[in-house]
């Protein structure tokens, strides 16, 4: 990607974001062009625009990520999940959810960061379903969600960096085949592997977030905040010394999820005591406001949360009303006032990398 083309596309995107309109077609179609002619598939926010708004106050970069879980036997032959993407009805139901969520987000001027893995990707390839290519063409970032045990088997932590790298590359290959996107940069998962960042760098990835322990489904409070950094290393889930230490030469940008005040925020939606969708989105609202308070002008500040296809079950008459209302009532006014800007995860990382 040529630096010189960035500011042109950035100004187009920023101009459209500022007034809450969907990003222009230049952004939407670039991703599916052949690599030689693609100018800028995911335009970075220009440095000063990612850092502060016209009033000179802090900006919070905002996005919604989507995790596609491994449901059914993965490409590596490991059984996983409670359901199975090889069942057409189940697969197509999730595809429908993905399209509905994408349309809702697009109508509010945003693009999601959609994180996939096998067997969803391989079923999409085998059945010729264009869902990931369609979402990429509409400007959503396509990325990797990596459940290590589903692709490396039980007890993957003792395996070598090369073994991890090879399987991450294999999964990225299916994503590229299903979506047409060659430049996959972001991943989530693999969280208890101390050499995760070496493996991810080997696989060509450079943006990460959504750290939670697969064992406890909780996030260490040392990872909570709004300012990205370049971790000096990974973690085994107990020692966060290297993970929380900034290495200016680190290959990976880590995006914290925001100013959440609970360790179980990443899994609370599905817990029994969460109080359902309404309570969860109320908690997201409070966390977004807390993140705005923590945001500093002159720094890249980020906030994001994760949705899954199949999880909007609160109101059978209007399952997606809760996210539609959240975007309308909470997010849109902050976008209009310049306090919040939509940005995909790689755009957040690029804004951070461009920070003076
Ligand atoms: Zn997952």
> What is the CA–CA distance across the termini?
20 Å
Instruction: List the domain count as a whole number.
Output: 1
Shape: globular
Q: Give the ordered list of helices and strands.
A: HHHEHEHHEHHEHEEHEHEH
The count of strands amounts to 8
Q: Which ions, cofactors or small ligands are bound in this entry?
A: zinc ion
The name CATH uses for the topology is TIM Barrel
Determine and state the CATH class.
Answer: Alpha Beta
On the 0 to 100 scale, the average pLDDT is 86
What's the number of helices?
12
Query: Share of helix among residues?
Result: 25-40%
* Unreliable residue runs: 1-42
Indicate the structural class: alpha/beta
Cα gyration radius (Å): 19 Å
Instruction: Profile the largest sheet.
Output: 8 strands, parallel
Outline the structure in words.
With 356 residues, the chain is of the alpha/beta class. It has a single domain, classed as TIM Barrel (Alpha-Beta Barrel), CATH 3.20.20. It contains twelve helices and eight strands. The protein has helices spanning 3-18, 25-30, 47-51, 88-107, 120-127, 131-137, 148-152, 161-179, 196-202, 276-294, 321-336, 345-354; strands at 60-67, 113-116, 141-146, 186-189, 207-209, 253-255, 301-307, 340-342. Helix 5 (120-127) packs parallel to helix 8 (161-179) and helix 8 (161-179) packs across helix 9. Residues 1-42 have low confidence and may be disordered. The protein binds zinc ion. Zinc ion (ZN) is lined by residues 67, 69, 145, 147.
Topology:
Blueprint: H1 3-18, H2 25-30, H3 47-51, E1 60-67, H4 88-107, E2 113-116, H5 120-127, H6 131-137, E3 141-146, H7 148-152, H8 161-179, E4 186-189, H9 196-202, E5 207-209, E6 253-255, H10 276-294, E7 301-307, H11 321-336, E8 340-342, H12 345-354
Parallel strand pairs: 1-2, 1-7, 1-8, 2-3, 3-4, 4-5, 5-6
Helix pairs in contact: 5-8, 8-9, 10-11
The chain binds zinc ion.
């Amino acid at each position: 990607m040529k630096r010189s083309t960035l500011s042109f596309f950035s100004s187009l995107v920023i101009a459209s974001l500022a007034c809450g309109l969907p990003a222009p077609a230049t952004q939407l179609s670039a991703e599916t062009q052949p690599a030689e002619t693609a100018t800028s598939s995911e335009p970075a926010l220009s440095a000063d625009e990612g850092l502060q708004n016209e009033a000179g106050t802090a900006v919070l970069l905002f996005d919604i990520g989507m995790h596609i879980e491994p449901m059914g036997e993965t490409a590596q032959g490991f059984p996983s999940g409670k359901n199975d993407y090889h069942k057409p009805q189940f697969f197509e139901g999730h595809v429908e959810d993905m399209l509905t969520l994408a349309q809702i987000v697009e109508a509010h001027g945003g693009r999601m960061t959609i994180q996939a893995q096998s067997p969803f990707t391989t079923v999409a390839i085998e059945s010729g379903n264009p869902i990931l290519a369609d979402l990429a063409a509409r400007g959503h970032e396509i990325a990797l969600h990596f459940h290590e045990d589903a692709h490396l088997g039980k007890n993957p932590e003792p395996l070598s960096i090369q073994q991890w790298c090879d399987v991450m590359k294999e999964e990225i290959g299916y994503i590229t085949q299903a979506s047409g996107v060659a430049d996959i940069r972001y991943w989530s998962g693999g969280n208890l592997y101390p050499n995760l960042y070496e493996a991810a760098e080997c696989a060509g990835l450079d943006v990460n977030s959504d750290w939670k322990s697969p064992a406890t489904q909780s996030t260490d409070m040392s990872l909570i905040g709004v300012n990205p950094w370049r971790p000096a290393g990974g973690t085994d889930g107990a020692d966060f010394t290297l993970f929380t230490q900034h290495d200016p030469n680190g290959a990976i940008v880590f995006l914290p999820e925001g100013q959440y005040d609970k360790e179980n925020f990443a899994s609370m939606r599905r817990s029994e005591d969460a109080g359902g969708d309404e309570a969860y989105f109320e908690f997201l609202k409070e966390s977004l406001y807390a993140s705005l308070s923590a945001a500093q002008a002159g720094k890249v500040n980020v906030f994001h949360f994760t949705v899954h296809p199949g999880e909007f079950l609160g109101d059978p008459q209007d399952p997606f009303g809760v996210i539609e209302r959240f975007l309308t009532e909470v997010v849109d006014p902050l976008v209009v006032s310049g306090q919040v800007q939509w940005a995909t995860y790689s755009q957040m990382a690029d804004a951070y990398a461009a920070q003076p």
